[in-house]
Amino acid sequence: MTTDQIISASSSVGTFLAAIATFMTITQISRQRRASYQPDLAFSRVDFEASNDKSSLPLGWKKPKTQDDLRLSLINLGLGAAKNVWLRWSFPIDESVRQITQLGKQPPFDAPSAFLLDDQLIINLEHTKIVSNWRDQRSQYLDYVVPIASEQTPRLVRLPEAYMLAVSAIVFFAIKAEKNFLSLLPSLAVDLQFDDIAGSRHRTALRYDVDISLIKRGADDFHFLGSLEVNRPDLPRLDSLATGL
User: Where are the domains of the chain?
Assistant: First the structure.
């Protein structure tokens, strides 16, 4: 190979390497640009207390310190705003009805206590009937959620009333019947779908697991403390892990 050929080959290799470097730089810039407007939605853990202020069941789920109605904090950890946000909730309501009914047949109860009719969760007590319309609670819409770095206050989202009713009924009937309820508590799944400012669609799936830390039972009052822990749907519950130890 002559000197001219060597120089020409070296020049070609250099041009090729420069083209690769330019492509990698453009790709990195594109990734950084996408990251600059990509949202990342997540929920945070929340503590609560429940008491039977107006009903035999402990339906009043409140924040322990402020006594405000319980709300979930939806946080945007990304750098860009999320818009057209849909939240779709689900939990094993049929299994919860079965558990409540089974517990309701135990002493000191003598009749079925729950059933599902046209997507309405109905709990029968001695002198009270409680109805929660699950159909209207399955989904919620938010027009936007800005990054937490821009707005320090998170978006507050209501917890489905049917889920609170199911958990409260399971705890109430199980304690009255002196049964273990920890493995009976249902998880609450949420499917998040939202757009970024460029119009690309994103999806995140999360799961709330309920944990009860304290129960106070009196002659006329029923009170318990707990928390809702955020997990991914593919992770097992902590109580199921403990059962396997």
Answer: 1-36, 40-243
